[in-house]
Amino acid sequence: MNQAETAKMKAAAGIALHDLSKFYGDVLGVNRINLTIEAGITGLVGPNGSGKSTLMNLLAGIVKPTRGTLEVLGVSASNPESFYGQLGYCTQYDFFPVGINGYDFIRNTLLIHGYNKATAKALTLQVLQQVDLMEAAMRPVEAYSKGMRQRIKLAQAIAHKPDVLILDEPLNGLDPMARAQIIALFQEFADSGKIVLISSQILHEVDLISDRVVLLNSGYLVAEGDLNNIQSETGEPMRIFIRSGDAKKIAAKVFDLEHVVEAQLHYDGQGLFVRSSDADAFFLSFNQQVINQGWSIEAIGAADETVEAVYQHLIVETQVTT
Amino acid sequence: MTEMDFTPGTANAPRFDSALTPRLEPGLNLWIRQVLAIFKIEFGKALFSKRALSSYALALLPIVVFSMAALESINEGEPSFKSIENAREIFGFIFSALGLSGVIFFGCAAIFTNLFRGEILDRSIHYYLLTPVRREVLVIAKYFAGLSSAFILFSLSSVISFLLLYLPYGLEQLISDLSNGIALQQLGQYVGITLLACLGYGSIFMATGILMRNPFIPIVLIAGWETIHFILPPALKLFSIMHYLKGLLPIPLDEGPFAIIVSSPPLWVSIVGMTGLSVLAILVSIYLLKRLEVRYIDE
Predict the structure, then answer these.
(1) What is the pLDDT of residues A173-182, one digit of tens each?
(2) What single-letter DSSP state applies at residue A140?
């Protein structure tokens, strides 16, 4: 069995949270979270104070749950050798041991992991190369730029080749080129059957990277799954864009179709936005009409199947209402 | 290309063709390797970082005092003290008043309090807590790193100060005292007391460093308690580390007219007492560290 297959088998167990709650005195961190995170990239999204960092810290075992259980690949944090051996955590905390250089920062961690000196050195150099910090390796971390500090933290989290990677705002402070490199690294991780959980405030990036999203608000799990499912589960009419030279004709007829609640012509007259309360039914009846009417259709698809749209509906609009 | 071909600090991109040795499986061998790795890191921090400056300054104090006394004797052409016996008596007094109560006490406070509190304050403790190391292993490794560095620093300070005492009396006197055993015996006693003091004070300061947000409060409270130990009633003296150490001094000290005199505990009681205290304090530290939570963001 090769490494990727082993990783895939282990990841099948995933991260399992059962009835997980954390209270800081009377203050709610997260409440009754039931969640399973499987292999691939999962984005954790929520406004400030939603409990994202509390959930991240619970997952990393550095905060203990008030109630409930948590297991990563079938292991709990009470077994630190196995738990942290398979987990890498890149915090958003921008602090480092005083006076340490990048090379020692990684190497010391690997020695504590239980690697011998030669392997620790080899893995350190390998990961420094991966995050493009070979040249700066012997400089004190305190002298690094924000982007370099972010990369050295990431290097430390992945140096021991974990099966689960938890990343709290990992793209903060990175320039576009470094972002692209790091995102490619995450995707490489996920493609090899590992679990990557990313918390980010930058929604379009979460959208770009994630296979699934977990939405938190005020300490509660609001939604989880792939965007398609969340979108349909919300019950919010789906916005569909149709690009067609017959956009005006379609606009005139579209309300004959079932479940259409809104239609709006695109400003160039070559497209149409339609809002439907049942997307599947709409597509079925629309296809029939296209055949009957002989309309030419260039493209058709969901216009708001993004994390941002889901976030807007489930969190922002809810907050405005309350 | 082997791993030896790579040099950090260069732009050359290394390739890794050599097979890497997997990390040790959980068990005694892993714990020993982890203790050694953490020991090395912490030993370096305690002795070779900016944090160590205050400990060095303290360790230098008795050396400066005895160097000045020796220089004065050399300048005046005759020893400052009547005889070498008198000089050793004064050394005993200075070791007790300046060495034990000042240098070793505050030196241990600086070294051991920083083992955990230093990292909690500079917000880097989470790096240890995110490694696959049991908190028991972390406490033990850090404690021995602190103990070793404190013992090396302060026993060296005592030995150098003791040797400086002989400077005005010449090498012959030193060789004579070393060969008849009196100097070696006294040196051994001072080094032994230093070790026991580091054991006792060190373990307490490590625990208070985890427990208290402000480490100065326990340092001041313990310093006060240890300062007044000589006027404490016999039952309370049992809770003073100084009580177990002063009885081991090679030269009995006069503690003044207000002192409540009790017989000194025998050597084995002092050794068992300090060892027991350090074991207890280590267990408390492990308990406290197991309860420690790190919050990165105040949500």
Answers:
(1) 788 888 888 8
(2) B
Give the CATH number for residue A218.
3.40.50.300
CA torsion through residues A119, A133, A211, A47, sign: positive
Q: Are strands A238-243 and A260-265 parallel, antiparallel or unpaired?
A: unpaired
Tokens 């109560």 locate to B101
Q: What is the pLDDT of residues B169-225, one digit of tens each?
A: 888 888 999 899 899 999 999 999 999 999 999 999 999 999 998 889 999 999 999
Same domain, A305 and A283: yes
Please state the domain count of chain A.
2
Asked if residues B173 and B232 have their Cβ atoms less than 8 Å apart, the reply is no
Q: Does B78 touch chain A (CB under 8 A)?
A: no
Pick the residue from chain A with its C-alpha nearest to B116.
A97
Instruction: Based on the fold, state whether residues A298 and A208 are members of the same structural domain.
Output: no
Choosing from A184, A210, A231, the residue where a domain stops is A231
Q: Are A64 and A167 part of one and the same domain? A: yes
A201 touches chain B (CB under 8 A): no
Residues of B numbered 86-145 whose beta carbons fall under 8 angstroms of chain A's beta carbons: which are they? 119, 122-124, 126-135
Kindly state whether residues A207 and A101 are assigned to the same domain: yes
* ipTM of the modeled complex: 0.84
Convert the pLDDT of each residue in A223-264 to its tens digit.
888 766 666 665 566 778 888 888 888 888 888 887 788 888
- Amino acid residing at B190: Y
**In this complex, do B21 and A138 lie within 8 Å of one another by their Cβ atoms?**
no
Q: Which helix (H) or strand (E) holds A52?
A: helix A52-59
Q: Which of A174, A202, A231 is the last residue of a domain?
A: A231
Q: Are residues A161 and A271 in the same domain?
A: no
Rounded to the nearest angstrom, the gap between the alpha carbon of residue B88 and the centroid of all alpha carbons in its chain is: 24
Q: What is the pLDDT of residues A296-318, one digit of tens each?
A: 888 887 766 566 666 666 666 66
Domain that holds residue A310: 236-321
Task: Give CA–CA dist B9/B14, Å, rounded.
Answer: 12
Chain B partners of A89 at a C-beta cutoff of 8 Å? 130
Do A254 and A128 share a structural domain?
no
Compute CA distances B299 → A182, A251, B293, whole Å.
Answer: 27, 48, 15
Model confidence, pTM: 0.82
> What number of other Cβ atoms are within 10 A of residue A21's Cβ?
16
CA pair distance A104, B124, nearest whole angstrom: 14
Q: Which of residues 14-73 of A touch B (CB under 8 A)?
A: 24, 29, 48-51, 53-54, 57, 60-64
- Give the whole-angstrom CA distance, residue A213 versus residue A314: 13
Measure Cα distances from B156 to B44, B60, B61, B160 in Å: 17, 10, 12, 6
Question: A90 with A148, same domain?
Answer: yes
- B178: helix, strand or coil: helix
